[in-house]
Design a protein that fits this description.
By secondary structure, the protein is of the alpha/beta class. The chain has three domains: about 170 residues, Immunoglobulin-like, CATH 2.60.40.10; about 220 residues, von Willebrand factor, type A domain (Rossmann fold, 3-Layer(aba) Sandwich); about 40 residues, no CATH class. Strands 1, 2, 3, 4, 5, 6, 7, 8 and 9 form a nine-stranded mixed beta sheet that branches. A hairpin with a 5-residue loop joins β8 and β9.
Amino acid sequence: MKLSFPIVPTARTAWLAALAAPIAIVIAAAAPGAWVIAPAAGVALLAVALLDGMLAGRMAEWRILVPTDAEVGESFEVLAMAEFAGRSARSPLEVALATDPRLGEAGAVRFVALCDPATGAWEGKTTLTPSRRGTAAVTRVWLRWAGPLGLGARQASHALDRMVRVWPDLAPVRSPELQTFLRDAQFGLIARRIRGEGTQFEALSEYEPGMDRRRIDWKASARHTRLYARENESERNNQIVFAFDCGQAMCEPVGGLPRIDRAVTAALTASYVALKGGDRVSLFGFARRPELSTPFVSDSRNFHRLQRAAAGLDYNAEEPNFTLALATLAARLQRRSLVVLFSDFTDPTGAELMIEGVGRLVERHLVLFVTMEDEDLAELSAAEPGTLDALATAVTADTLLRQRALVLQRLRQMGVDIIEAPWDRIGYRLIDRYLEIKRSEAIG
């Protein structure tokens, strides 16, 4: 891409002019007739800066390479490349980019490009880490490089139209640990039937000592005059719904990312395992009203549909409407399902509404409530109070933790299974609990 680059003075020129001002005042006071020296020196400085900028060299081509896709919380590189015509620039090439706040808190990033002596090309890169999902734009670039004396520089800005689609983090899905687990566990890459468990009849086999006597098929044994036992296979085609509270509490950061993003990563990881196990998965998101409801997806080859749908979950600075959302979800489900609800709560009133909505789901479905431990509250509660303010803070934090524990206890008494763990462990805890539920045939 070719552009014209005007010459501008550098910060060094400005500092020299600022330092010369007191000298000019002294000259004017000591020798009024020599006042012309000050403006002449200023003009000379500008002339030198202009000449220095001309010697900086002319850029022939430049490129900014930005990836089109990234994952929240995962770093990616932005590359700047340039070529100079004729005499190459001697100073580093300064690059500044205007970005969406999702890619940087300040909405801008700066870095330098250096010359590669082997190729004569100038290259520089920087690392960005998306903090939220969505489409983030890189809207403008500024390029600047100074002359040999550092007094004059060439500079230009140009509008960019580079969009980065920030997807949910799938690093746990690609992790070697999970892939090894899927190959070796009962839900491997090639799904095979699991005999000896479950409720669906698979075959008859001759009874051997040590087998469960309750599986003896007495009618078949009478016909063959030998003992035969029923072999069952683990039930498949279960319905799993991952429901996300996208309200204010779930938008609070934990470990550097919003809680909702941590929940999405855990849910997608468990979804991948469930699809490998032959079950059907759906996503449901809500805040003040239901915002996302996907059809049930089967087969791991359709996992990308869940990923794309999860990327559309928005951040809402409002309290969720559990009554409307969970009633809508209950009306949608036509058969018994496992509902995995990711949520958090900050006040007893909101918790009461959540408990009431969950109570309706428990009547027909198996509910698993997933929440992340509040490490900040735990630290405040456990801290040694040295002042009255610190004591008040510790008492308040302890009260909130007790209220939280009371709400979770009420959910357990209703028959809701609970997972409360640090954000970096909920994904694998969720997978373990899902496999336990599947083995116990509690869904169907």
